[in-house]
Design goal:
alpha+beta
Amino acid sequence: MDNAIQLISDGDGLAVIGNATDVERFLLSEGLPSRDLGVQRLKSVFSTGAAAAQAGSEIVANSGRWVKLTKESAERVKQFGLMKTKTPGISHAMVGKPGSIKNWLQVEKGAGSFLTNPAHLAGAAGIMAQLAMQQTMDEITDYLARIDEKVDDVLRAQKDAAVARMIGADLIIEEAMTIREQVGRVSEVTWSKVQAAPTAIADTQAYAVRQLDALAEKLEGQTKIGDLATTAKEVESKAREWLAVLARSFQLQDAFAVLELDRVLDTTPDELDRHRLGLRIARQKRLDAISRSTERLVARMNAAADAANAKVLLHPTKSPAVVQSTNQVAAGVHDFHGRLGIESGRRPSEARRWVHAATEVRDKALETGAKGVDAARSLGNETLDRANSVKGKLSSEIAERMRRRRGDEEERGGES
């Protein structure tokens, strides 16, 4: 079918392959932002001979774009009915445009589809994995620029020599990525330079995770609000530094994985798919470890904020400071998670202002006082009634005595 394009998804991204004009029209009609897929790299997947020449010509005749799948774009892609393939985690479909640009329908796989070959599909999946990691790398670059943390300065300040080695690994990998960009592949010479880098990066990443755990432990056992406020402020500053180090180490690990997939694509393309899956599993394990550490820190900060809120009346300035530091840390972790693709929810603690807490206490006091006034008023009325009753009785008795006295006096006067 004319205008047919091919869709490939690995769950993280969507590759759109076909005639350049048709690919652009499809992406425009669906409102999907994209970046170049670089299908020319697939030439390395094929062996020599007539089959390789035919496959190569098919690749040159096609254009490819890659789309990062978000919740919204993933929902839009579902309508095209991508079917699972024999390549683990990969779905594929061909769609055509039967007239209207807004009406793309699934069509049968055509004989000219070079992705019907499992090896070709594995190669496309490998390139998609590289693009997904490069997207994360770009987002981490933006994150580090925005928080303005100098990772090298943080590392140089550490006494642990193993941590400082990541600076050297950083330089080597940056150089290799620059050469790859210019040459289009990772040569044996370039690969030999970067092979030792992962150890230094992993050591630094583990150290940064331990530092975040140590910050969380500092908050435990703090009972005095003054000490808690001082510690929370220190944690706020240090946590941002170590989050920056974690982000940079993760970025370098993704960069190395991009180089690694290139090298496998050049040397042992039949192992590319298994290697891609192995890298994906290892990457997820690193994300899980980082997520546990950062979430533990936020949990300890939230506990500190709750303790501070409970004593806001006694500490009207230091208690809100603890809550403010907690919110800063939680916001930083949330932003950090977003750049690495870690799903997390953030509920900022709400500082109880002293005046609100005081008003709450005052209202309770007034309520109690009002009840007391009512009780006093009731008791007073009873007392007054009793007093009036006693007064009445006394008055009657006095009046009766006066009458009797006058009567006695009159009797005595009559006798005389």
